[in-house]
């Protein structure tokens, strides 16, 4: 009687066991799938070794955690999904209460040895402990991991740069004869899905993800799937904390032309501003990598502004030297004027004394003219003495002409010297130099900034 009832129950359920008697273990028992069954875990799951296992790969970008330019590192948080077919797994869901998939420990089945070429450090978090199989023999493994990978950074346009970092998936030991890789999504789908699941981007803005497949040209090579992640740096923080302060220091250097050159305040101010730019250059050196194919524009920006400010400092030193020279010349002129006044006083005194002696000599001669006859006063001269006197007279006359010519030459030289040594001459020269240099400096700074920002925009 009980047997008849059981048969009648099977007839009503079309040969399917009641749900309270169905379990995942019934499926595993049907497949004889256990940890000790080497059929599933030891070798590639194909019945004919000449047939390759086709592995489909899907990658989603969850977050861009960090990009270290100094070490050329890219640290993303990604979600990977691998699917392949196991030829030893299949069952009819109708025989097991509609069960069409089962979750198993990952170590029970064979898993493709897919790795990432650019990965430099293994994820410290353990991989997913489970995988999923379905009634058609498809196996799926999902895993999330933090990747520390190498990425060649192009920092020429830093901080307005766009970086492309690759994640290249391939088998470790299997060639195209054993494993064929293929992406399960295209570039558009990968980009859209990644944007939907994106959690955080920090400094970088995710732009798109490009999927490229490099199929092996022969059976001894390997298939490679390359996911290229394109991202753009958020440059606002660098503009506010670096580019604008350097530009402010340059404006301060331009404003320093309004400071008087007579004291040392202008020189001290320029040196202080120059040291401030040097500190910012040291900070920049900590950010940028030690080697690069091209000098970054931000380095050119800092070095150019540093060179312009250094040139301005040298011009200030020159102007202060000219003003100091003028001040020294004024002091020398005062000393010369004092000495010339003393000499004039002495000359007048000597002239006065000599004038008095001449009067006395003239008076004596007049007395002799009045008192005595000329024949008694004039000495008797000889003919030889008169010739000698005439020769001396001509020689003295010639010497007098030469002295007059020398006096004219010295007067001309002294007039030029006085023209140069006029009070305030070097100060006027310094002001002209300062004015011309300011126009030149402002022109060069404007051209330099226009060219740098044009390069940043076009690159």
Q: What does this molecule look like?
A:
- The chain is of the alpha+beta class and 459 residues long.
- Helices cover 50% and strands 20% of the residues.
- It contains 10 helices and 12 strands.
- It has helices at residues 2-12, 24-31, 38-41, 187-197, 236-255, 265-287, 297-371, 374-377, 383-420, 425-458; strands at 53-68, 73-85, 101-105, 114-116, 119-121, 130-134, 138-146, 148-150, 162-171, 179-183, 204-214, 224-233.
- The strands form 2 sheets. Strands 1, 2, 3, 5, 6, 7, 8 and 10 form an 8-stranded mixed sheet that branches. Strands 4-9-12-11 form a 4-stranded antiparallel sheet.
- A hairpin with a 3-residue loop joins strand 6 and strand 7.
- Helix 5 packs antiparallel against helix 6, helix 5 packs parallel to helix 7 (297-371) and helix 7 (297-371) runs antiparallel to helix 10.
- The longest helix is centred in the last third of the chain and has 75 residues, at 297-371.
- Mean pLDDT is 81; it is low at 1-17 and 357-382.
